[in-house]
Amino acid sequence: QVQLVESGGGLVQAGGSLRLSCAASGSTFIINVMGWYRQAPGKQRELVANIVTRGTPNFADSVKGRFTISRDYAKNTVTLQMNSLKPEDTAVYYCNLRDFNNKVNYWGQGTQVTVSS
Question: Out of 66, 75, 76, 106, which could bridge 84 as a Cys pair, Cβ 3.0 to 4.6 Å?
């Protein structure tokens, strides 16, 4: 089993920044993919960004150039730095960890990000 504990999120004005962190514990696989998804009201959950173990980051087009993602392999954490936030970034953000073959997925409890205009 894997446990994902998220921190960060909150309310910020447009143009501001927030940082989300997620710590994983348990049997997290030797090679895995960690990242963040988000779900706005009335919309499907969508990928924001993720990184394969020791790989390069992958971003949704809507956040490229504004968000960065990093992993601390010693601490088994993933951090999403969100800059130049827009009202359309408002959503519940979920930490995700999956195996490389996408057969097993784990989710955090979700954290709310609200960007006011």
Answer: 66
